[in-house]
Amino acid sequence: MRKICVPLFLAFALFLFLPFSSGTAGAQTAPSKPVVEIGNAPSKGRGDAPVTLIEFSDFECPFCKRFNDRTLARVLEKYGDKVRFAYKHFPLSEVHPQAANAAKASSCVYFMGEESAFFKYYDVLFDRVDEWKKDETRLVTYAKDLGLDETKLSACMKSPATERWVTNDLEEGKKLGVEKVPTCFVNGRKVTGAQPFELFVKIIDEELNQK
């Protein structure tokens, strides 16, 4: 390949006149949104919904429970088929010692019972967090109550494949800049923390108006 040498003064001139991504009046463009794929994560809603809401969460986190109870349920009720919701694991094991076990148990429920069973189990984990965070054996009991085989679920929770499933979500979240839970991505727009219903309405309406 031929090498082209640019004189130093020319390179400096080009540097001075090239537009910058920030700090100049003429370059104020909206930041690009990250690509966040649902992939094989458990989800509910139409596959062709105009808005996707992907949550990185921790079942032992009180703020995640608050988001689930006060915001998410209302969002899904308000928008119906216009929003597809997906859940990804981001257990903060250093502060929530049972969060990883809950993530693995819910993943196994998903593998064994598919999405309908997962979201029933999802609700149970948030509703009864004060029980299972003190007694992890209840994670299996709740799955049994949903009609799943407790022996198979216990074996699944110990499987390296299940560990990798949870770790993959965690690593994806880190690459996307997730540091706290809950963190949501609404069509790629990052929302950190248990934000109020009204903020999600604003963001979702903006996304729908662009369609």
Q: Report the radius of gyration as a whole number of Å.
A: 22 Å
Helical percentage: 40-55%
H/E series: HEEHEHHHHHEEH
CATH names the topology as: Glutaredoxin
Determine and state the CATH class.
Alpha Beta
Output the CATH homologous superfamily.
Glutaredoxin
Form type: globular
Key features?
disordered N terminus; Glutaredoxin; alpha+beta; 50% helix; 211 residues; 5-stranded mixed sheet
Describe the structure.
The chain is built from 8 helices and 5 strands. The protein is α+β, with helices and mostly antiparallel strands and 211 residues long. It has a 5-stranded mixed sheet with strand order 1-3-2-4-5.
SSE blueprint:
Blueprint: H1 8-17, E1 43-44, E2 51-57, H2 62-79, E3 83-89, H3 99-127, H4 129-132, H5 138-145, H6 150-157, H7 160-175, E4 183-186, E5 189-192, H8 197-209
Parallel strand pairs: 2-3
Antiparallel strand pairs: 1-3, 2-4, 4-5
Give a short synopsis of this structure.
With 211 residues, the protein is an alpha+beta fold. The chain has eight helices and five strands; from the N terminus they run αββαβαααααββα. α3 (99-127) packs across α7.
